[in-house]
Amino acid sequence: MLTAFMENFTFAGEVNVEIACRNATRYVVLHASRVAVEKVQVAEDRVAGAVPVAGFFLYPQTQVLVVVLNRTLDAQRNYNLKIIYNALIENELLGFFRSSYVLHGERRFLGVTQFSPTHARKAFPCFDEPIYKATFKISIKHQATYLSLSNMPVETSVFEEDGWVTDHFSQTPLMSTYYLAWAICNFTYRETITKSGVVVRLYARPDAIRRGSGDYALHITKRLIEFYEDYFKVPYSLPKLDLLAVPKHPYAAMENWGLSIFVEQRILLDPSVSSISYLLDVTMVIVHEICHQWFGDLVTPVWWEDVWLKEGFAHYFEFVGTDYLYPGWNMEKQRFLTDVLHEVMLLDGLASSHPVSQEVLQATDIDRVFDWIAYKKGAALIRMLANFMGHSVFQRGLQILSVSNRAGLIDDAFSLARAGYLPQSVPLEIIRYLSEEKDFLPWHAASRALYPLDKLLDRMEKYNVFNEYILRQVATTYIKLGWPKNSFNGSLVQASYQHEIPLNVRDIVYCTGVSLLDEDVWEFIWMKFHSTTAVSEKKILLEALTCSDDRNLLNRLLNLSLNSEVVLDQDAIDVIIHVARNPHGRDLAWKFFRDKWKILNTRYGEALFMNSKLISGVTEFLNTEGELKELKNFMKNYDGVAAASFSRALETVEANVRWKMLYQDELFQWLGKAVRH
User: Fold this and answer.
1) What does UniProt list as catalytic (predicted)?
2) Which positions make up the binding site?
3) Residues forming the annotated binding site for Zn(2+)?
4) Could you tell me the end-to-end alpha-carbon distance of the chain, in angstroms, rounded to an integer?
């Protein structure tokens, strides 16, 4: 929340940050520079109340605000950090600064931001590094003679009697601080709308708007958004894009998401007096900044050493996008060589040159990575890649990934989170996109990755929260695909199982029926199992019997499985494993396995593969300290051909127990919040 006093160029701010505490700590450290902090509060939820703040101080050397608490913040809990502060609307070109112009002989002022790369901290205390993406809800209070702009559209405006107005902006998507933006000015605008409904406005001095000086930029911006949406096959992410022409700015332009800011000379032109070279200059700056709405804003480098990725892409697309607007100019095939490649080779030939990716260790290193090596050499490398692989393949590669990559990312995310290398929320965040997924493979990858997680959680009190979250992710596709349709002759309509949920759903129906209904249904399925002669049907019916919630029936089935007259030897393994997968039967199967081990080992001991399958199937989802102890005790008395299988089982169960101890609270805390929202 900002209150801007344009008559004396100061502003008052209030920041509320929801912070997730990963590790217990008595300190909260975030970036702040040149702000006067008046008050800091830390609170849990309303019931638990405030956490007493012992003190706070600014440390200018590293541009941070340190908050010292009287007691430790608990790991895996969320807190609200409230900071009240004030600062100057600076008379320089970084942070939240002021600018002016003359209209009808009168000097008028405006306030505008430039946060890249490390200047958001001058406007509000924040975690001012690109990896820390967050959603932002901004409110700006200003005199009613001005208007305010930010990344998102105004949601509501509250007018007060004393000539002030507060604009509340919509909440942003997840974004980095460096392309957050706002402005307070008394500009006017012209507007257009893209085919996909994005509202594009160009704001500038009223006299420039009246003259039509912004019309060219507005026109090509509309065309460029449509071009990039088609080229990347990713819709523009926000409801609007404002272009703001300011009298002074440290750069030609800045790609703030939804509110790109340009110095006037790089966006305003009068076609009757502007030369072709000036028009080309304006065009390429706009093409560059609109490209950043995807490469830089939607997708952001983790750290500044890879700034060449966003700047190299945007610089290369200056030529690709201008070719789209003016095909006859041959920018990508010809002008790129002289304007970029030849020029950067001269630079790269100097002993003072450097790789495109430079190590950045502290804030003072950041500015130096924004040089022509990052922009031009980066662009030349990307163009070389595009020409080597062919433009159509390059374009396809740019279009959130191939089917196999989408599947791979899902699997990687779950595996890395299980090993503790990623927050537990990341894989569950990733699968939110599945409602848009049309291909089978990513769904299959998600299904396979979720299964072991499901089995780790299925005996816990809060399991229903996990259940609800997963059901939400699959509901859209489930409803859209519906149930299998019967053809006229009564047989199931056949379709490729890779494009629709498998049509043969008898196994699901049988299992669900057995789990939800009474013992009579179990007996009915048991009789069906005996009477059917179809081998495939026998297998499905037998596995369905393991789905019961009735522990007596599960125990009965386990004991029956050892009778070779009733259940075939190889099917008995499946019975025991499937009972172990059932949360109501896991401990029963594990006890049965230990009690009957001599019989089972005699039966399968020589058939090592079957024995190995049985051992892993019964133990892979054990996850309590007690079960781990039982496994260790059992292994003490065993030294046979399946020793390697037991070693693997021990490693798996130890990993399960460790995961529960370290990560289950973090997971359920995130799930609780995700389900509430």
Assistant:
1) 289 (proton acceptor)
2) 288, 292, 311
3) 288, 292, 311
4) 23
Burial of 487 (0-12, 13-18, 19+ CB in 10 A): exposed
pLDDT tens digits, residue range 247-293?
999 999 999 999 999 999 999 999 788 999 999 999 999 999 999 99
Domain 1-186 has CATH 2.60.40.1730: yes
Domain 550-675 has what CATH class?
A: mainly alpha
Catalytic residue among 289, 332, 627, 630: 289
pLDDT of 96: 98
82, 18 in Cβ contact below 8 A?
Answer: no
Q: Is the pLDDT of residue 141 over 50?
A: yes
DSSP single-letter state for residue 131: T
Task: Transcribe 20-80 into DSSP letters.
Answer: EESS-EEEEEEE--S-EEEEEEEE-STTT-EEPEEEEEEETTTTEEEEEEEEEEPTTEEEE
Number of H helices, E strands in the chain: 24, 20
User: Does the structure show a pLDDT above 60 at 491?
Assistant: no
Give residue limits of the domains in the chain. Answer: 1-186, 301-399, 416-477, 550-675
| Rounded average pLDDT over 502-528 | 87
Instruction: Please report the pLDDT score of residue 569 as a whole number.
Output: 81
**pTM reported for the whole predicted model:** 0.80
625 is catalytic: no
The domain 301-399 belongs to what CATH superfamily?
Neutral Protease Domain 2 (1.10.390.10)
Tell me the three state secondary structure of residue 96: strand
Question: What 3-state class would DSSP assign to 663?
Answer: helix
Residue 650 CB: number of other CB atoms within 10 A? 16
What does the pLDDT look like over 5-21, one tens digit per residue? 999 999 999 999 999 88
Asked whether residue 642 carries a pLDDT value surpassing 50, the answer given is yes
